[in-house]
């Protein structure tokens, strides 16, 4: 079992683009979602797939189990998806020794850009990059399961 300890932020400018190290095209969907638990399938670059189970309702920390699964199985499981399939491109961006995962959403969520910082450390605001906007850690509507199940709650102008 692993622990996922993360903070989420909206992204306010495109300054991060020049520092991006990797681009990963992601399609992900949920097989189950309930308060405090989700079961997700993620397909990366159309070539690999993982099944992820997350448990917990703490704002910054959850238990996470992740397993590689055959790509063909992931594609078959798409028939059992609840809600919408999330399409996004994940960019890895380093700033002051920390790795930020910047997700640029497409499809029905086009226009949404969210950065995640996974670290158990309490990073002070002055150490955060200038291109981060408002912190949305703990705001359920910005979590991927909510975006898949209730995309109408997201409005580009209302964030």
Keywords summarizing the entry:
159 residues; mainly beta; 2 helices; globular
Can you describe this structure in just a few lines?
The protein is mainly beta.
Ordered list of secondary-structure elements with their pairings:
Layout: E1 2-11, E2 20-34, E3 37-44, E4 48-55, E5 61-69, H1 71-77, E6 82-95, E7 98-105, E8 113-118, E9 132-135, H2 144-149
Antiparallel strand pairs: 1-5, 1-8, 1-9, 2-3, 2-6, 3-4, 4-5, 6-7, 7-8
Textual characterization of the structure:
It is a single chain. The chain has 159 residues and is mainly beta. Helices cover 8% and strands 52% of the residues. It has an 8-stranded antiparallel barrel with strand order 1-5-4-3-2-6-7-8. It is globular, with a radius of gyration of 15 Å. 24% of the residues are buried.
Strand residue percentage: over 45%
What integer value in Å does the Rg equal?
15 Å
Coarse structural class: mainly beta
Order of helices and strands: EEEEEHEEEEH
How does the overall form come out from the CA principal axes?
Answer: globular
Major sheet size, sense and barrel closure: 8 strands, antiparallel, barrel
Unreliable residue runs? none
Total beta strands: 9
């Amino acid at each position: 079992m692993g622990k996922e300890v993360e903070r989420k932020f909206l992204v306010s400018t495109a300054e991060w683009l020049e520092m991006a190290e990797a681009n990963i095209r992601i399609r992900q969907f949920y097989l189950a979602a309930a308060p405090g638990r989700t079961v997700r399938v993620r397909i990366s670059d159309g070539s690999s797939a993982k099944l992820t189970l997350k448990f917990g309702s703490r704002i910054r920390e959850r238990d996470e189990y992740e397993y590689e699964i055959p790509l063909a199985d992931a594609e078959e499981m798409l028939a059992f998806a609840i809600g919408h399939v999330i399409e996004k491109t994940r960019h890895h961006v380093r700033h002051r020794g920390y790795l930020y995962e910047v997700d640029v959403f497409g499809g029905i969520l086009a226009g949404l850009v969210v950065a995640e910082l996974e670290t158990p450390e309490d990073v002070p605001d002055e150490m955060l990059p200038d291109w981060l906007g408002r912190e949305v850690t703990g705001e359920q509507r910005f979590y991927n399961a909510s975006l898949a199940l209730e995309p109408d709650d997201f409005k580009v102008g209302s964030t």
